[in-house]
Amino acid sequence: ALSMAEDYMSDTFLNQLEDIRPGLRNERQKRKDRFTKAENPPKQKKKKVAENEARESAMSVPLPDDNKGFSLLQKMGYKKGMGLGKTGAGRTAPVPIVVKDGLVLADG
What we know:
The chain has about 110 residues and is mainly α. It has helices at about 10-15, 25-35, 45-60, 70-75; strands spanning about 95-100, 105. Strands 1-2 form a two-stranded antiparallel sheet. β1 (about 95-100) and β2 (about 105) form a beta hairpin. The longest helix is centred in the N-terminal third of the chain and has 14 residues, at about 25-35. The protein is rod-shaped, with a radius of gyration of 32 Å.
C-alpha cells in the first residue's frame, strides 16, 4: 500500500526535477534572473528625452562644407554668413524647429 506522499498520481516527483523545456519562457526567465541579480540594472532614457538630446546635438554642429545643399548654394554665389535673397538681406540662420507632441513643424 502506498502512502499519500508516495502516491503514483502525485506531482511531488515532477516538482523535484529541473525545468529544462526549451523555448522562449526559459530564455525570458534567464534574462529576468540576470537583471534581478544585477546591483544596478541598465536604465534606459525615455524616448522623448533621447530624441531631444539627439536633436540638440545634431543642431549644435554647423553644416559641413561638403553638404549637398550648401554646395548648391555656393554654386549660385552664396558665401558663408551671407543673407539669402537677391540683396543678401534675407535669413542668415537656418529655420528653427518647433516640436509639438512628436510632430516636427517648421517655424517661420
